[in-house]
Amino acid sequence: MLFLVWFRIKQPETITQRHLMQIWQREAEAALPAVKAGTVKGLWKVTGKREVVAVIDASTNEELDEILETLPIIKELGFAVELEVHAIHPYENFYELIKKLAS
Fold first, then answer.
1. Does domain 2-102 have CATH number 3.30.70.1060?
2. pLDDT band at 42 (very low <50, low <70, confident <90, very high)
3. In terms of C-beta distances under 8 Å and separation of at least 24 residues, what long-range contacts does 88-97 make, across chains too?
4. What is the mean pLDDT of the chain?
5. Which of 13, 16, 74, 79 is deepest in the core (most CB within 10 A)?
6. Secondary structure (DSSP) of 18-57
7. What is the bridge-based pairing of β-strands 51-57 and 40-46?
8. Residue 80 in 3-state DSSP?
9. Prediction pTM value
């Protein structure tokens, strides 16, 4: 199953920008190998914002929860990271459905 995951990072007042960037660096060091392994199908940084968009391939909802909860940025910032998650599927699948519904 594919999931679109939108990460919105808020810098806590208790940490410096440098500390935030160190946490984000650890996150990137964990995320980029997941891209190469195929678990993360796509990963994008939103320009001008502290936001990242990912397409993650997980077998179950529980697997996605486990993936998200073990991310360095979630473990270290927790409440300061807002997640928006949507199950998605290929448009080609939707096309097959609308052909069926249209007939």
1. yes
2. very high
3. 88/2, 88/3, 88/4, 88/55, 89/1, 89/2, 90/2
4. 95
5. 74
6. HHHHHHHHHHHHHHHHHHHHTSEEEEEEETTTTEEEEEEE
7. antiparallel
8. helix
9. 0.89
